[in-house]
Each structure stands twice: as C-alpha cells, then as structure tokens.
Amino acid sequence: MESLGYIKALDGVRAVAIILVMMFHYGIIGFGWLGVQIFFVLSGFLITGILLKLKNEETFFGKKIKRFYARRSLRIFPVYYLYLLVFLLCFIVFAVPADFGYKAPYLFTYTYNYTRTFEGWTLTPYFTHLWSLCVEEQFYLIWPFIVLLTNRRALKKVMVLLILLIPVLRFLFLLFLQKDALLDNGDIGDAVYWNTISQADAFAIGGFISVIVSEGKIMFHKWFVYISAFVFFTYGILMSFLQNGYDTNSYFFDLGYPVANVAHLAPVFSYTIANLFFASCLFFLADVFINNKRSWASEFLSSKVLVQMGKVSYGMYIYHWTVMMLLKRYVSWKNSLTNFPLYLAIVFVIAYLSYILFESFFLKWKARFA
Q1: Which among 148, 131, 136, 279 has a CA at the least distance from the CA of 192?
Q2: Which three-class secondary structure state does DSSP give residue 28?
Q3: What pLDDT sits at residue 1?
Q4: CA distances (Å), 225 to each of 276, 280, 284, in order?
Q5: The pTM is what?
Q6: What pLDDT shows up at residue 366?
Q7: What are the tens digits of pLDDT across the range 70-94?
Q8: Which residues are CB-neighbours of 58 under 8 A, at least 6 positions away?
Q9: Which of 60, 62, 218, 319 is the most buried (most CB within 10 A)?
Q10: Cα first-last separation, the chain
Q11: Three-state DSSP class for 40?
C-alpha cells in the first residue's frame, strides 16, 4: 500500500488548523497556535507519503528530486512571493511597513524564522506569521533526501531518533538562550519555537505514521487516540495548575498550552505531546479511509465547507493577519466572538479568489511533473 490517494478528511484537518490559528491571532483562544503544530505534523505525513510513492518509481534519483521540487514550488512560491512583492511595492512607495526593508532579505530567502533570536526584534503582523512557512520550506530542503536515499528500516530509525532527540535539543537551546540572557522569557520561548530543528520531531512523527500506513502491517486501534488525548489534556491541566493554580478561565483559554511558554520545561515536552496527539488523529483518519469505516469525525471533517476551506487554507494563512489589520484600520473593526464568523468568511473569500484567479494558473503546470 504505497499511496493512500486523496483523503478528503485531511482537507478538513487543514480547515480546523487554520481556524485555530485565526482564532489565536484574533485573541479568542490562547491555544490556537497549536494549529501550526497540526500543519507541521500533517506536512510530515503527506510529504513523506508523496516521497515514498516517488521512491518506488523506476527512474533515476535526479528526476525524482526535480519532480518533487517542481511540484512543491508551483504550489508554494507563487502566492507567497506575490504577497511579499505587494509589500515591497508598499514599502517603496509609502515606506510601510517601516521595518520591511530590514526583514525583506530573510523573508525572500525563507530564513525569517531565525530573526527571532535577534535583539530588538519587533512583531509586524503583516508577515510575522510567515515564520512557519520558512520552517516548512527548510524541511523540504532536507527531508526528500532522507526519505529517498534510505531504506524503510533505516528511515524509521531516523524518524524515531528525531522524535527522541529533538526534545533534548530544544532543552539545550533553551538553556543556551537563558544563559546568554539577551532575551526575556517570552522572546526565548518564541526563539525556541521558531527554530526549524525544534519542529523536526513534528515532521518526523507525521512521517513515521505515513510509513506505517504505507506498509499496511500495523492495525490501528482507537486506543491510540484515547491514550494520546488523555496525555495531552492531563499534561495541559497539570501545566495550567502549576502556573495559574485553580484559575479555570486561564485553563479554558489556553488548555495549559500558552504560546512560547518556557516555564516547567514546557518546550521539552509540550510540543512532543501535542504532536503525538495530532499524529494519532491522522492515523485514525487514514485507518477510516483505508478500511472504509464510518466515523462521525471523518464525516464531519469531510463536510463540503471544511473541505473547501482546507483547499485554500494556505492562502488563508498568508492573508488572514493582513486582512484583520486592514479591517481594524479602515472599518473600525473590533475583535469579538460575534464578529469572528464574518472575519473568517472574508478571509476565505479572498483566499478562494486568490486560488481561482492566480494560484490555479501555476497549479495547472504541476501536471507536467506528474
């Protein structure tokens, strides 16, 4: 079983992830940043599946790599660089955003995530969220070679090693930044979180599930989800109690997973626990698809609205923060729970139009590398 094919519910997963991220930036929930973790784990799952399929094709290595990067570039680069070029024009004509000239080299080279370790770093809502796209692009530079150049047995060992090693590296990086004392705790938390190495276990966990599914040897059991969910929520309750005592409002706002938290060694464990939970959910959805099972979760995620939103989630991620800033500036927009559905709809329409009128032109070229 080398290729799963198209799993409609995974587009629903993308939709859930982008909604979480938008709610987080909107200020409604404090755990919405976990949507980025979902994207990372899902990328590891899907990209590994694509590479495993390429690996079995009877063609030389160079052609496989060319095909992979051509298709990825046609999907990712056009709208990303269009977005940056619009801001470059605004900067040239109006000198806004004021710090674009300083950050542009990092944005255009997909290295913006590393600027978080710089002293005096400032948040710019128009492109701060692009750090995660930089992490994914850097993942694409390395992962294809690991998957295509190693046999399955060695590949699984590499993935397990990353899953076990990365939390340790996060801990060492945290200690290094704290000892350096150039950043405060919030900045240190972001610097650790934004580092590509810190997220390698998310991609590895997703990739490991993809390898297992492609082999068709291990049967899925719902207890994988139950146990990982129990660990996820129990850990969150413990962390919330350690930081806030019996403040239930704080727990329901961030579920014990405040963003960029460095207290109680959170960078060591929280990301891994979240990644394992999300990976078990992907394993469950793959099992439902493979074995033609019925599941309310799969049916919900396969609903037309979520699937359509998932298909344009990449554009929604790129545009959403700028849309919110423009709404606040020109229509006196107020962030509230009642206004969020309208905001979500506006971002979806913009991303959908972008997909139909611009991105689809480049996506047609992907067929040349099918």
Answers
A1: 131
A2: coil
A3: 41
A4: 9, 5, 7
A5: 0.96
A6: 85
A7: 999 999 999 999 999 999 999 999 9
A8: none
A9: 319
A10: 19
A11: helix
208 close to 163: Cβ distance less than 8 angstroms = yes
Q: How confident is the model at residue 2 (pLDDT cuts 50, 70, 90)?
A: very low
Here the tokens at position 13 are 């997963």
Alpha helices in the chain (DSSP H): 8-26, 34-55, 61-94, 100-108, 131-149, 152-180, 185-194, 200-215, 223-244, 248-254, 266-290, 296-301, 304-311, 313-330, 340-354, 360-363
Q: Which residue has the tokens 């850990």?
A: 235
**And the tokens for 259?**
């963003």
- Amino acid identity of 186? G
Written as one string, the DSSP assignment of 216-265 is: T-S---THHHHHHHHHHHHHHHHHHHHHHTT-HHHHHHHTT--TT--GGG
In degrees and rounded to multiples of 5, residue 101 shows phi and psi of -60, -35
Collapsing DSSP states into helix, strand and coil, what is residue 117? helix
